[in-house]
Write a structure and sequence with these properties.
The protein has helices at residues 2-58, 78-84, 88-91, 96-100, 103-119, 161-166, 188-196, 216-222, 226-232, 235-238, 241-252, 295-316, 326-340, 354-361, 363-380, 404-420, 444-460; strands spanning 63-67, 73-76, 122-130, 136-145, 153-159, 201-205, 211-214, 257-265, 271-281, 286-293, 344-351, 386-391, 394-400, 431-438, 466-468. The chain is α+β, with helices and mostly antiparallel strands and 479 residues long. It starts with a helix and ends in an 11-residue tail after the last strand.
Length: 479
């Protein structure tokens, strides 16, 4: 019976084995399809991330070069091509410092950079840069070593030629970090690391305006941690809710917001001035936002303007009395005569017996007399009148649009006023005046000589008086 039973069971066992193999094959095929689908999904994700990062790079307005560990240029962005004038073919595969730096600077800067990068991952310096057309620009450069597993250096270049022309010791702080397309095309993580070490704040927003990604720079700039800033959104960074909606709507219409100045504040209440760049990426349905801190740059600009104004004042003002100097006075006369072509009055006045003041009281008291006299005259002159130190104790007053009789009246009032003053710590003084008027036929030299002649006559006549140049006879004229 047992052999017969086995013969009956054998077909059933063979049938079960066949169906088990089919089931196992079906399971393996299903797993294979699942793996293929997951791989396809991951590849699509990498492609989307690469498109996102490539688009951000293309919108960067900072000249950036990617340099390998041997100092050879691997890639440069459009801003670098525009600033330097080199095409990709002209500059890649060459050492950047040999291509861009003057011969006398290349070796010195190369050693300084090598030493600095050993101490820190970043270094910055100012240097002349040679453009493709031979023009030399004064530029601020930033070198940033990329962390492992990345290998290479990012070089950003900012043209500061105009700033250094005005005031070399005040350098405008403008630093950017942009990503090179070729160096980070394949690995998404490399782009994220690059964003995290960027100097400027970078954020990505979804279509609803919520933050999907932000780098470390933006959290440090506004003094918020990443999670809390994502929770708050960008409204505290851009102002009120209405302003934020308007900016997002503008960007979505395809209008790029480029370096819009926004005044805001940090979490701790510190004032913060930023330049905002905002745009929309329709293929990704995301907004990109780049924020540059310009707080220090604005402070430097204000200081630069103040220094420029101070420098201009030093050029045209007498350093002791703050009256205009002789050079400015002569330029003013030429402008009135040759450009404005108007009639005006001219007064030359001189302090009587000023040498005795210096001999009796000393030169410091004499300086005080000059300063006090200028302050007194400026209080009485009209707006638009020019008071200049002609030399020593002589001063010139230019009276635009004043007639001859008006100029004489002003001179008499000034003479009486000065004679009535008593300056603290100084002796009483008087002044002698010569008055002349310019018409369309008078040149600067003749005008000054005529007024000076009248002044000389006032001194001959006993001083502390006003002499009208028109009243003098031509025969009395002598140089």
């Amino acid at each position: 019976m047992k052999p017969n039973l086995l013969l009956l069971l054998l077909p059933s066992l063979l049938l079960a084995q066949e169906y088990g193999t089919i089931f196992m094959s079906a399971t393996l095929f299903t797993l294979l399809l699942t793996l293929v689908f997951l791989l396809f999904t991951y590849i699509k994700k990498l492609q989307r991330e690469n498109i996102k990062n490539r688009t951000l790079f293309e919108h960067s307005d900072v000249a950036t070069l990617f340099i390998n560990t041997k100092g050879i240029v691997v890639a440069l962005n459009e801003s670098a091509k525009s600033l330097l004038g080199y095409s990709k073919k002209q500059i890649t595969s060459q050492k950047w410092y040999e291509k861009l730096l003057p011969d006398e600077s290349a070796i010195k800067i190369r050693h300084a950079i090598h030493h600095s990068l050993k101490q820190d991952a970043r270094t910055h310096f100012n240097t002349p840069i040679i453009c493709a057309n031979g023009e030399i620009l004064t530029c601020q450069c930033h070198l940033t070593n990329l962390p492992e597993p990345l290998r290479g250096t990012l070089l950003t270049i900012v043209d500061i030629t105009k700033d250094t022309t005005l005031e070399e010791e005040l350098q405008r702080v403008q630093t950017h970090l942009a990503e090179t397309q070729n160096a980070f095309e394949e690995l998404d993580e490399q782009f994220k690391v690059t964003f995290d070490i960027a100097i400027n704040g970078i954020a990505l927003l979804d279509e609803a305006g919520k933050i999907s990604y932000l780098n470390r720079a933006i959290t440090e700039m506004y003094e918020y941690n990443e999670d809390y800033l994502k929770h708050l959104g960008i409204t505290p960074l851009l102002g009120d809710e209405e302003a934020t909606k308007a900016l997002l709507a503008t960007a979505k219409r395809g209008e790029k917001i480029d370096k819009m100045h926004i005044r805001s504040q940090t979490r701790t209440g510190k004032a913060l001035d930023v330049d905002l760049t905002l745009g929309y990426l329709p293929e990704l349905k995301q907004y990109y936002m780049v924020v540059q801190d310009i707080t220090k740059a604005l402070a430097y600009t204000t200081e630069l303007k103040r220094s420029k104004k101070s420098l201009e004042q030093r050029v045209i003002k007498d350093c002791l009395t703050t009256a205009y100097n002789r050079s400015y006075m002569e330029e003013r006369l030429e402008h009135l005569i040759d450009v404005e072509k108007i009639a005006f009055g001219l007064i030359i006045l001189d302090i009587d017996h000023f040498k005795q003041v210096n001999d009796t009281y000393g030169h410091l008291v004499g300086d005080d007399v000059l300063i006090n006299l200028v302050n007194a005259l400026q209080e009485k002159l009209r707006k638009g009148d020019t008071l200049a130190r002609f030399g020593g104790e002589e001063f010139v007053i230019i009276l635009p649009h004043a007639t001859h009789s008006e100029s004489l009246a002003i001179a008499h009032k000034l003479r009486e006023y000065i004679a009535s003053l008593q300056f603290e710590g100084c002796p009483k003084i008087t002044c002698s005046f010569g008055v002349e008027t310019c018409d369309s036929t008078t040149d600067r030299r003749t005008l000054l000589l005529s007024a000076d002649r009248a002044l000389y006559k006032a001194k001959e006549s006993g001083r502390n008086c006003v002499v009208d140049a028109h009243a003098l006879r031509t025969s009395d004229y002598s140089i």
